[in-house]
Every structure is written in structure tokens, then in C-alpha cells.
Amino acid sequence: MARAPGLSARLKLTLSYVGFLMLIGAVLLVVGYFSLSRGVHPGVIFMVRSHGALWRAFAPTAAIVLGFLLVFGLVGGWFLAGRMLAPLTRITDATRVAASGSLSHRIELEGRNDEFRELADSFDAMLARLEAHVAEQQRFAANASHELRTPLAITQTLLEVARNDPEGDTAELVDRLHAVNARAIDLTQALLLLSRADQRSFPREHVDLSLVAEEATETLLPLAERRGHTIETVGDPTPAIGSHALLLQLSTNLVHNAIVHNLPEQGTVWVTTSAQAKSAVLTVENTGEKLTPQSVATLAEPFLRGTERIRADHAGVGLGLAIVKSITQAHEGTLALTPRAAGGLRVTVQLPSA
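Given the sequence above, the corresponding C-alpha cells read:
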């Protein structure tokens, strides 16, 4: 937005200092003049012949004093304003650097805590979050492009093989194309859901987290039975605030992840909900292989899957826990992933209660 040039903040502060100093000086001179005009000064009695004579004697001294105050105010005010606005100059320079696309620059303002220090620290924290968010988005876009390219490349290869072999097995080709296309559709839907959660563009309502978890468990119970796993659900009414659809997706992803990444057979999934003082908690645990804290720390990253999971049945597209993390953050909650000592994973989602 184009704006007309104006006085700098430093000059405005300098003029304000000068004006205030001149006003105080003028008031003191006026008080001194009237005090002398009455012929009385603290501890001294003067004989004043006339106001004219007093003014002729007083005016030069008053002019010298006001002139000194003017010069002193301009020089001192300019220096003091510069010292006061120096942190603001550094913040402005950092803003220009960030606007040019460089988010790695930090102000790192030293000194004791004051308004400028708080502003600089807040700006540094904002830059850090923006830098991390941009890096995450770039990494996510690269991973998404790679994941979407894979089914498209497979489809192209299958079609080229079919074109070069017109007498091939059409039924097998259709089945393979159907599977690849279904994977591409699932991945696209997951990406759209993740984008929706990141934008936080959803209505909020009162939701019973225990009922949502129960609904997700009932939906995935056939999958657990086919794999020979059992699901144990325990929970009291757990009121929360958020989107029922997104929280159902969150619960479904957690239960699905616990079923798929479990023991080969005779595995168990525990789904627990509890209401605390100011939060609603959903915990999903499962049996499985032993995990290290280092590997668990990366499970919520998009498209990060173990190699043994990529071709497993119902393995998903590598966005299950990433969507859980995004939905949790969109609801201003926290997500904690911890390995179980006996093997498997414990996932705890803590959301604001109703």
C-alpha cells in the first residue's frame, strides 16, 4: 500500500523531547520573572523600579536559557531516541530479511526483559515456527509427489505391457489396475483430509470421545477378527469439543494402525477413554514388535513406514499417524507416542474437554 512520506519515529521523539523541555523551561522562566516582578525572591528582597527595566534585564538571560535548552534538547533527544529505537531498527531489518524469503535469520536481542525484548523474542519464535512449517510442507510435498507418482508409474507400466501383449490375461490386468487405482484414491483422500485438518476449517461441537472410539472399533472389528486379534474397549463418557468427523477419523486411524501393525496372530488392541479435569484422553495400545524411542519419534511423520509394512494388506498409505497428529493439533491437543516394554505402541491423544 503506497503511503505519503512522513517524519521518522526518531525525529518525532526528538521533537517531543525538545517541546517538553522547552515547555518546562518556559514555565520556570515565567515563574522566575513574576517572582522578580513582585520584588521578592527566596531569602532576598529586591527594589524593582519598573517592569520595563526588569524585562530588559531578564529577556537576554531568558533567551540564552531557552536557546541552550533547544540545542541541548535536539542533541540529547536525538541521541536518546536513537538508543531507544535501536532494538526496533533491528526488528525492522529482520522483518525485511524474512520478507525476502530468508527465515533462518534471528534477532537474538540481548539485554534485560522489556517491551522490545518481548517483541523480538516473539518475532524469533514466529520465524522459527514458520521455518519449521515451511520445511515440513516442502518435505511433505516432495513425499506426496513421490507417493502419487508410484501408482501412476505402475499403471503406465501395466498398460504398456497390455498394449504389447494383446492376448494377455485381461482379468489379471484389471485386478491389478483396480488395486493400484484404489491405492491412489486412498492416498488422495488422505491428502485432502490432512489439508483440511491443517487449515482448521471445520465446525466445532460437543463430542463424546468414548462413543467415537466405540464407533471406530465396531467399524474395524471385522478386520481384527480376520487377523486373529482381539480389541478391548474401556471408557467412561468423555466429553470433548471438536469435529465429530475428524475425531472419528482420528480414532479410526489409531485403531486401524494398532490392528495392522500388530503380532502376526493372537494380538491385542486396547482402546481406553477417560475424562480428566480439563482434558479428554484417548489411549490406544497394541501388542507387537519391540520399538525403540528413536523409531517411535518418527512414526507420526508423513509417509514414514517400516519396509515390512509397505506391501502388507490394509497397510494404508503412510499417512495414518500423520493425520492423527494434524487433527490433534487442529483441536489444540497433544499427541504422545511411547513404546511398550512388552512390545507394541501406546498412543495417547489429549484434547480439551467440553
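The chain has three domains: 1-39+56-100, 140-199, 205-352. Try to locate this feature in the C-alpha cell string yourself.
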